[in-house]
Amino acid sequence: MEQGGARVAARTPADKSRRDPRLDVLRGLALIMIFIDHVPENLYSFYTIRMFGFSDAAEAFVLISGISAGLAYSQRFSGAMMATAQAIWKRALTIYGAHVFSTIMALMITVPAVFAFGLMEFAEINGVDWVWRRPLASITGIFTLTYQVSYFNILPLYVVLFAAVPGLLWLGRKSIALMLSVSAVIWLVGRWSELKMPAYPGDWAWYFNPLCWLLLFAIGLAAGMAARRGGRLVPFSPLLYAAAVAFVIYAAWWRLSGHFAFPWPETLTPAVIADISKERLGLPRIAHILALAYIVAYLPGFRRFLEHPVFHPVNIMGRASLVTFVTGSLIAFTLQIVRTVYPTGLPEDTILLAIGLVAQYLAARYALERAGRLTTTAPAEPLREECGSPIDRLVAPPPEKLGR
């Protein structure tokens, strides 16, 4: 890895064999913040990344997922295109199954509680009421990804993104610049035309527009591809690093100021590019998460810091990201119901969130144990798309090494 533009001392063979913890730990931290944010209005939700800039943990998770996909698939794609494409689509199918499973479980938890405690407003706000208003249409919508309960709407985005990975890798083989240019054009078309993924039975659209979120995922994919080739998508530059730090500080000031107005005069930049919407991923959100990523990537000593044993539980949660996310989503939705029925304060929220995080860690640990990948210092392994059990398939392919 290079820090400050210069190559650090060569690592020992044992050191080179160890997984780079940055992707796993940062992905785990993003999942923890997503879990906390999915229990609205608890005190801890006011101290996650979303409160200190334009972007939030969702952008971090998409970017990291793109990097991991680039590291895991790009080299194999060059030698076995169709086999790798099939493995990627198999992963997309696993994510699809996780979405269907988590949505059905959420409804099984919520619907009885709605009628037992009279939570009709909660059901309407979160789109649960369609189950009894249009039951057949709702069941159809679950399997066609058009019926999305609130807080269970990000996995359909991942299904689409992973389905697009082979095409992106094919473009990236020719030119990473070409892949990013095509993704940027799709982003512009998605924003300019306001094309949306349809929802059914409701008359709304997908909350996460894949046409717009594809660009951020593609940037991560490009970074992973460059790293697998032994390079850097964006080399270190003191001037660029200073600009990234300045932008992050400005974003924090803007967010903490409480004004929440447009961060600069709209006349300077077309609104189609530079609004701050999450659904269609405005440019300030992309710039903010990329600035944070650039700062982290070249932060001296950061990798060694994340190798501290205190981060091992977070590392495990990040490595079994799909298990962690599904478990956390179901627990968070349950906690929303609990807090609606029985209003809680800081002590109760602390206990409930802690129990939820421990449950996610245990689920992630169990998934890694079943897949034989619990050791955090093990050498990078081959892709495990051929694993037989459903638990094995919920564990993402190892991202291998982030840098050299």
TrEMBL record:
<keyword id="KW-1133">Transmembrane helix</keyword>
<dbReference type="InterPro" id="IPR014550">
    <property type="entry name" value="UCP028704_OpgC"/>
</dbReference>
<feature type="transmembrane region" description="Helical">
    <location>
        <begin position="176"/>
        <end position="192"/>
    </location>
</feature>
<feature type="transmembrane region" description="Helical">
    <location>
        <begin position="93"/>
        <end position="119"/>
    </location>
</feature>
<feature type="transmembrane region" description="Helical">
    <location>
        <begin position="204"/>
        <end position="227"/>
    </location>
</feature>
<keyword id="KW-0472">Membrane</keyword>
<dbReference type="Pfam" id="PF10129">
    <property type="entry name" value="OpgC_C"/>
</dbReference>
<feature type="transmembrane region" description="Helical">
    <location>
        <begin position="139"/>
        <end position="164"/>
    </location>
</feature>
<protein>
    <recommendedName>
        <fullName>OpgC protein</fullName>
    </recommendedName>
</protein>
<feature type="transmembrane region" description="Helical">
    <location>
        <begin position="51"/>
        <end position="73"/>
    </location>
</feature>
<feature type="transmembrane region" description="Helical">
    <location>
        <begin position="239"/>
        <end position="256"/>
    </location>
</feature>
<feature type="transmembrane region" description="Helical">
    <location>
        <begin position="286"/>
        <end position="306"/>
    </location>
</feature>
<feature type="transmembrane region" description="Helical">
    <location>
        <begin position="350"/>
        <end position="368"/>
    </location>
</feature>
<feature type="transmembrane region" description="Helical">
    <location>
        <begin position="318"/>
        <end position="338"/>
    </location>
</feature>
<feature type="transmembrane region" description="Helical">
    <location>
        <begin position="21"/>
        <end position="39"/>
    </location>
</feature>
<keyword id="KW-0812">Transmembrane</keyword>
